[in-house]
Structure prediction request, 472 residues.
Amino acid sequence: MKGSLVIAAASAALASAVATPAQVEVRASNSSSGSTPAVTVKGNAFFAGDERFYIRGVDYQPGGSSESADPIADVASCKRDVAEFKKLGVNTVRVYTVDNTANHDECMSMLADAGIYLALDVNTPKYSINRDTPAESYNEVYLQSIFATIDSFANYDNTLLFFSGNEVINSDNNTDCAPYVKAVTRDMKQYIGSRGYRKIPVGYSAADVSSNRYDMAQYMNCGTDDQRSDFFAFNDYSWCDPSSYQQSGWNQKVDLFSNYSLPLFLSEYGCITNERKFEEVAALYGDQMTPVYSGGLVYEYAEEGSGYGLVQITGDSVTEKSDFQALQSALTNTPAPSGDGGYNANGQPSECPSESDTWEVTDFTGQQLPAIPIKANLYMKQGAGKGPGLTGKGSQNAGSASTGTATPGSGSVTAVASNTASGGGSSSGSGASASSSASSAGQSLIGGDLGLGPVVCGAIVLFSSLFGAALI
Prediction:
């Protein structure tokens, strides 16, 4: 990416794109239950009201990435699976792909009635940042899609959080994609604020790559408040039963992040190298980890040929595997901790990492980020409109690339650099289709349902389950 961007003079203020209260249309919440109070961030923890909130959940994408289906738009399957979630005793499900044109009221209501929150990835196979060409794929067509997804879910009380990306950085030679992940996070936070929605947490789900995991965590927590993530998560398969807090290396990660000032949790866990007994559950919700960690999500609910599934789905029937009973037992025997878990209420932002052999962010350092595409500013005032759903033409080659940087003032981006529009882009997602379709939408690096498609940021990268589970 070095030298690929031309720094242009600042030409517009993002502050001018933020809607005034009179311009904001705030809809009533669609959630029908008081059992899922809106969750907020305080210090390095989540809180539901005055109670510390721990994520105790599963990753949920029946059919896997190949079908690109929306599991919470299918009322029948949702009803079937919510019953299983209640048996497991989870309070959160992570969904990797949704259709932002579909109606989700019934399923979100069923989840809310069961006391279950949604952690949602906003990217889809066709609408995501391309790791090979991040500048070009960060465009207004892409942002229109993810903003439309925010519109679809912001008014449910049990929308817990949004993931701006999943395992975008998976090695040392593509860390230069990081500024675009951070820019998307910034844009999502500002869209939520400009549209008058409640402050739904926005953050990133990282690959557990030991050489740059900490750098990425620091990077997503540095800069001004509008640039910083609201949380940081990573996918961790380093505890393989039989193991322990020390043997797995979890103690070292707790020490490493002991002064981290954002909520931290595992967006995927559950090694299958040996029999899964989920002994790590006791550690994850124990007093050694709760000052730093806020729980985690087990990969994954439905078996897709990778061996990670807790249940086998055949037609309308669900068969619980031994892993299901093991997790159910582990959660039952390890209730959510009481009290505040020793959280840090007054942490400070991180220092942005310096360039190194394992961190290649050079074009954008410190507080400078890619400028939001000028056309996307209109969404801040006018809303995103109807999304492209799962059948749109895609965004990776569809819009104008950002050609400059945005430099923040005190707490907000104050300038947007000029862009050069390219043909074919539109707010309806009608630009040229991506060069080839990605076969996985935010799916796990570990998952066995991965196709050999292109490498796409925010979708997920190629990995064979033959390589084992640990990525440390």
